Backbone:
């Protein structure tokens, strides 16, 4: 079943919210409550969730724990994913040290760079920067399936090609480029978020 | 004029591509070429750009430099924006040190934290971590209009309220929460990108 990407993103947001509710010991939630917390329409919540079967009971809402487990399976985060990072600059290091990722079942197995000054540097208790020359062997040895590209724009395409050829199945791309590849890519160009924000700010001030 | 957010995001991506073309000395580009580089449909490119008037000439394409200037104005990045960062953890520091942002006319003016161990630490040649107690005064003094929230989830809403009350007009939120505020927010929850990616990878493997 092909689920549209906006729906997938909302599922991940419902998931985040449900985790917090379960932590707080809240067992039940209605689509209206969920919608209010996330500032979306409750018809949208119901539509998104009904996609996958009937999780809720009319008038009784959803069982938070059941819904959490279901979304976990739908998203594919019920299993652990091994992730490598290419590029040990500011962004690559921040991702390597970002504890939230591990909490969500993603394990950063290795970090690579071309810069001799960075290779051998310790990032945290588990990770030392390796040379990109070792990347292909490492991917095979560790069975890493996902990769983060945090290289400069110019290097990203070549790295993406090498990653795909080594068996990587999906890429998170922080480099400001559009990659030419047939494996799934999620783009996180931070400057695009800034530009989109500025446009919203300006449009709003024009309307006043 | 209210432009849909997906269009705004694509404009920012056209902009990124046009910058590279101008750097390479390429003066003209057709919508088809632009579409091919970005793996989208050329009808989409033409539709997006025709939104703002007639930049191209049928059969002659777009003048890269003219289009770049126009998109810059539409997005609102022809002026400089002062930005503060709240939270000097891994993500906050990475954003503070991320040179791409400055290159795009966003100036990081200050970075704040509540942690006494972090306050006073140097982030780069321009920035030293300040106490959040100084945040409101600093925003006023520097005329900062945008803010990055890179705090833990629990702190984000209170910070967002304080930012709005101090005159901040837009927020980039890295904290994994949905904020309750009426100023524009762009959300960058890195774990959501990982989850969305995993879903694409899994769907693809099911289809094979």
Residues:
């Amino acid at each position: 079943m092909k689920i549209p990407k906006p729906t997938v993103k909302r599922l991940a947001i419902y998931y985040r919210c449900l985790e917090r509710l379960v932590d707080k010991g809240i067992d039940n939630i209605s689509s209206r409550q969920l919608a209010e917390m996330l500032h979306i329409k409750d018809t949208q919540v119901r539509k998104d969730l009904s996609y996958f079967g009937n999780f809720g009971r009319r008038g009784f809402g959803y069982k938070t724990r059941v819904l959490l487990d279901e979304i976990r399976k739908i998203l594919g985060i019920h299993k652990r994913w091994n992730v490598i990072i290419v590029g040990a600059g500011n962004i690559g290091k921040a991702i390597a040290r970002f504890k939230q990722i591990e909490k969500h079942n993603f394990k950063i197995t290795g970090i690579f760079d071309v810069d001799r000054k960075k290779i051998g540097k310790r990032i945290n208790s588990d990770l030392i920067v390796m040379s990109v020359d070792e990347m292909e062997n490492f991917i095979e040895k560790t069975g890493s399936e996902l990769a983060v590209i945090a290289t400069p724009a110019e290097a990203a395409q070549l790295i993406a090609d090498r990653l795909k050829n080594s068996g990587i199945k999906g890429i998170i791309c922080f480099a400001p480029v559009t990659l030419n590849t047939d494996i799934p890519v999620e783009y996180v160009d931070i400057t695009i978020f800034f530009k989109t924000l500025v446009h919203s700010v300006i449009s709003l001030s024009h309307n006043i």
Chain A has two domains: 5-74, 81-191.
